[in-house]
Write a structure and sequence with these properties.
- By secondary structure, this protein is mainly α.
- It is about 65% helix and about 5% strand.
- A two-stranded antiparallel ribbon has the order 1-2.
- A hairpin with a 4-residue loop joins strand 1 and strand 2.
- The protein is globular and about 65 Å long.
- The two termini are about 30 Å apart.
């Protein structure tokens, strides 16, 4: 092999592999992860369809399938492609997990209450009824809570865990945050009853949850907020959750008024009134992180990470 040929071969390899780290570059790691995640999720749904005889579109069984697929894909990609530990994504410190998840869950409850209060006080909700029935409690609380735990877990693991942190390796933190927020909004733009306003508000939610990770160096706060928001907005206060309905609610009502103000059939995330609520929540998260301390941040801006060569 000639020196020219050898040099050409080395150049091609370097396009895929970071020679300083001996692993795939960030873009290829993300591509491989997304393909693996898609294949696992699709295989899981096909397997359930074969086992159960059917798998209707919109079935709640998709959530455990996605949670399992996300976990397996991240475990493989983190260990084999990233050559890092699963926990290093921000899943350490179990005692802190209880505090962060609990605070995030309750903060989201306050956010949902604020939206309900503003809309009700403005006369934008009609036929408000309290529908509590002890016999229906499992269907109103336990079943939706289980679904929201699965949703909050896998979405934070994928979006604020694997994707954000690998994008930051490849393009730097600032650009990674922008791309991650836009991607999060676009993913939800395909939900039922989505609007331009809902897409922009969900971009804001993406930033709020990224801040939860950056401020604490852990994913727990973001997971708690994600779980709490999906649970309280629908199961307690009767709103649609990103365009979806998940069964019975403690409070029922009907939004009246323009969709950009009430959120309409998409839920509070489709309302411009959500923007000041997000801003106040950001202040509360900052105060929480400062009071309870955050892990040391490295020069690349990602908490708890050592600076290293570009991916």
């Amino acid at each position: 092999m000639t020196a020219t040929a050898a040099g050409r071969q080395t150049g091609i390899r370097d396009w895929f592999v970071n020679p300083a780290e001996g692993r795939l570059r960030a873009g290829w790691r993300i591509t491989a992860f997304l393909l693996l995640f898609f294949l696992l999720a699709a295989s899981g749904q096909v397997g359930l369809r074969a086992l159960l005889g059917s798998f209707p579109k919109g079935s709640p069984l998709v959530f455990p399938v996605l949670a399992v697929a996300a976990t397996l894909a991240v475990l493989f990609a983190r260990r084999v492609l990233d050559r890092r530990s699963f926990a290093s994504l921000g899943l350490t410190r179990p005692r802190r997990a209880v505090l962060d998840v609990g605070f995030g869950f309750l903060l989201s409850g306050v956010m949902a209450l604020a939206m309900f209060g503003m809309l009700a006080a403005s006369g934008l909700l009609a036929d408000v009824k309290f529908a509590f029935d002890a016999g229906a409690l499992p269907g109103i609380v336990l079943y939706p809570l289980a679904l929201t735990v699965l949703i909050g877990y896998w979405e934070e693991l994928v979006f604020r865990g694997y994707l954000l942190q690998n994008m930051a390796d490849g393009m730097g933190l600032r650009l990674a945050v922008i791309v991650s927020c836009l991607l999060y909004g676009l993913v939800h733009a395909g939900n039922p009853n989505a609007t331009l306003v809902s897409t922009l508000v969900i971009v804001g939610f993406g930033w709020l949850r990224i801040y939860g990770y950056l401020a604490t160096g852990l994913l727990w706060l973001s997971m708690g907020m994600h779980i709490g928001w999906n649970f309280f907005q629908h199961s307690v206060f009767g709103f649609a959750a990103s365009g979806h309905s998940m069964g019975s609610t403690l409070i029922s009502h009907r939004p009246t008024g323009p969709g950009w103000l009430t959120g309409g059939a998409f839920g509070p995330e489709g309302s411009v009134l959500m923007l000041p609520v997000l801003a106040v929540a950001l202040v509360a998260m900052r105060a929480w992180a400062q009071r309870h301390g955050n892990p040391d941040s490295s020069r690349d801006g990602l908490p708890g990470r050592r600076p290293g060569p570009a991916a």
